[in-house]
Amino acid sequence: MIERAGEPLRIVLGSRLPARDEAIARLIASGRGSLALILGDEARRYRLLARAVNWDRILIAYRGSTALGYAAFKHHRRGPFSPGFGPFRDEFGRLRGGVRYLLFVIAECREWYYGFYLHGLRVIKPARHQGVATALLTETFGQARQAGYDSVELEVQVKNQSAQQLYTRQGFVRVRTTPVNWLSRLLPFPAVMNMRRSLKPQS
Ligand SMILES: CC(C)(COP(=O)(O)OP(=O)(O)OC[C@H]1O[C@@H](n2cnc3c(N)ncnc32)[C@H](O)[C@@H]1OP(=O)(O)O)[C@@H](O)C(=O)NCCC(=O)NCCS
Asked: Rounded to whole angstroms, how far apart are CA atoms 179 and 181?
């Protein structure tokens, strides 16, 4: 818990919430901006994903009852979303929905080789630079340790330098920079950097 003027910051696992948090469902679903080409605009992403959130893969930062941000993670092949084909069919029709669903599944599967993977991290603008993401990362490391992992991995867009700075400060190191070659030939996916944070005690 981080004390700041006013209310303390609380980090809560989504599956421990007494009820589904609609505000955070909206924030998480709209956060898949890198897949906008497949999923459509923010409103569409919400309709496609918000009902398919795996709440045990989401950490939420609250001050009082206000959700300030989230960290979404993936391990044991279960990430923050498990949408079926139904919402894609309803949104785009059977054929176009089928193609988009397939592309979405391929894009998500791209992460299969990671152990514990930080899938997304986002803080609402008015709450930035107050240590919210740092607190979410600390709790994410705890989740990874509990699940038996000794490192956390992530992908960050090469152009997102402020996020890279945050990750470096939190002990992540660059593993490689991947232009997501085979996928970027089909779709304009941005170049990403892979980073890893060891959770082993420093010797
Ligand atoms: C990247 C992001 C998650 C950072 O969230 P944040 O809550 O602002 O991060 P933190 O406050 O923990 O740390 C960010 C900065 O605030 C500073 N800071 C932390 N606590 C502070 C405090 N109490 N007072 C002033 N500054 C503080 C940190 O030193 C850090 O400095 P830096 O920007 O020079 O690196 C946020 O900007 C965001 O949501 N961006 C859009 C989505 C995104 O890019 N996500 C990453 C995708 S991989």
From this structure: 5
Round to whole Å and give the CA distance between 45 and 143: 27
Q: Is the CB of 100 under 6 A from ligand 1?
A: no
Domains of the chain from N-terminus onward: 9-198 (3.40.630.30)
Q: Whose CA is nearest to atom 16 of ligand 1?
A: 129
Question: Count of CB atoms within 10 A of residue 126's CB?
Answer: 8
Q: pLDDT, tens digit, for every residue of 155-179?
A: 998 889 999 999 999 999 999 887 6
Q: Is 165 in the pocket of ligand 1 (CB under 6 A)?
A: yes
**Ligand 1 within 6 A of 196 CB?**
no
Contact 28, 120 (CB under 8 A): yes
Q: How far is the CA of 45 from the centre of ligand 1 (A)?
A: 25
Please tell me the distance from the alpha carbon of residue 113 to that of residue 3, in angstroms, as a whole number: 37
The pLDDT-based confidence of 16 (bands split at 50, 70, 90) is very high
* This prediction's pTM: 0.89
Structure token pair of residue 178: 């991947």
Helices (H), the chain: 22-30, 36-39, 42-49, 85-92, 94-109, 132-146, 161-169, 181-186
